[in-house]
Amino acid sequence: MPDNIYTQIVGVVHVHSIYSDGSKTIEEIARIGEGAGLDFLMFTDHNTLKPLRDGHQRYHGKTAVIVGYEIEDENDENHYLAFGLDNVLERGLKAAEYVERVRQNGGLGIIAHPDEVRSAFPQYPSYPWTEWDTDGFDAMEIWNHMSAWMESLKPINMLKMAIMPRRSLRGPTQRALAKWDEISAGRRVAGVGSADVHAHAYRKGLIKLTIFPYKVQFRSIRTHLLLDRPLSDDIIEARDQIFEAIRKCRVFVSNFRWGDARGFEFYARDKDRIYPMGAEVSLSNDLVLNMISPKTSEIRLIKDGQPVMSQTGNCFEMAVQIPGIYRVELFLRKRGWIYSNHIRVGPKK
Ligand SMILES: [Zn+2]
Ligand SMILES: [Zn+2]
Asked: 288, 318 in Cβ contact below 8 A?
């Protein structure tokens, strides 16, 4: 289906450059992104939109560079990725305030690393989202490479983890998925994947390593979007297409380490039409869910946060009989590979 209706694009969300604590320039990073075949990159340096004023929001080769920034509160918690603003908001706002301000300004807001837990190293505290009463955000990171990495990091495996940073990527945490399913029961909220790339240099004795080279990061957790039409050559139009796809939850997340997920499809269909991820559809006698995967994998269908079907294959079609929010998870050798967004099935009309 969607290939002829929707254009799929793939990119990486949550990238830091030398404008904050990243380690390369936007030009250098964009070139690496283009080399990795990414259609878009979403930059989020801490508390600055200087890259926007310096003209970095543009196409770098074939890769669209979108510039937002990362906000935090006074306690350095509740990190929020804000896009589409012309100027940074004043400092010292509470999470509920900046979420609202981004929304009022027509921006796109994504909750960053919502469930982060770090215990092994007191010098690296965690930065979870705590303000769950706040509403009005468009999306949340369901899988953040940096958080996943830090969570699995122990003094004993530090070196190994630094050499093989993708080892930690077994899948999103159950906590993040449960929270996402819970909020999604009430309203649409997109689940995106993110790199949170900083490419930190790490030094231990004589060993110096860049823990997260951008090149490796761009071959890990990716966010895929479905667009109504091909991505515009005009960067502002392209940006708005990306925002719209995220707001509408026309999104899936993959770990490129286990395979290229482009071409994955999950949609509902009745006798009249096709409904992509993110769609709301009423139950009817001929409503079916379809999934097509680029590779044979273990497929789990999740309804309202609970697994309701599991099988191995590269496609399925299933009649829907009960309203609920449906999504799929695909695994390769027990490792999380693809996570769809929800299709929302409402009662019969
Ligand atoms: Zn952060
Ligand atoms: Zn960050």
From this structure: yes
Find, among 12, 84, 19, the residue nearest to 47 by Cα.
Answer: 19
- Express each pLDDT in 152-173 by its tens digit: 666 666 666 666 666 667 889 8
Domain with 322, as residue range(s), is 265-346
User: What is the pLDDT at residue 22?
Assistant: 87
The tally of domains found in the chain comes to 2
Ligand nearest to the CA of 44: 2
Q: What is the pLDDT of residue 26?
A: 97
Collapsing DSSP to helix, strand or coil, 252 comes out as strand
Question: What's the CA-to-centroid distance between 329 and ligand 2, angstroms?
Answer: 25
Q: What's the CATH code of the domain at 43?
A: 3.20.20.140
pLDDT interval class at 327 (50, 70, 90) = very high
Q: How far is the CA of 330 from the centre of ligand 1 (A)?
A: 27
- In this structure, the answer to whether residues 238 and 319 fall within a common structural domain is no
User: Which ligand number lies closest to the CA of residue 42?
Assistant: 2
Q: What does the block give as tokens for 55?
A: 């003209």
Burial of residue 318 (CB within 10 Å: 0-12, 13-18, 19+) is: middle
β partners of residue 291: 266, 316
Using a cut of 0.90, tell me whether the model's pTM lies above it. Answer: yes
Q: How many angstroms separate the alpha carbon of residue 79 from the centre of ligand 1?
A: 5
The ligand minimizing its distance to the Cα of 127 is 1
Q: Answer yes or no: do 237 and 320 share one domain.
A: no
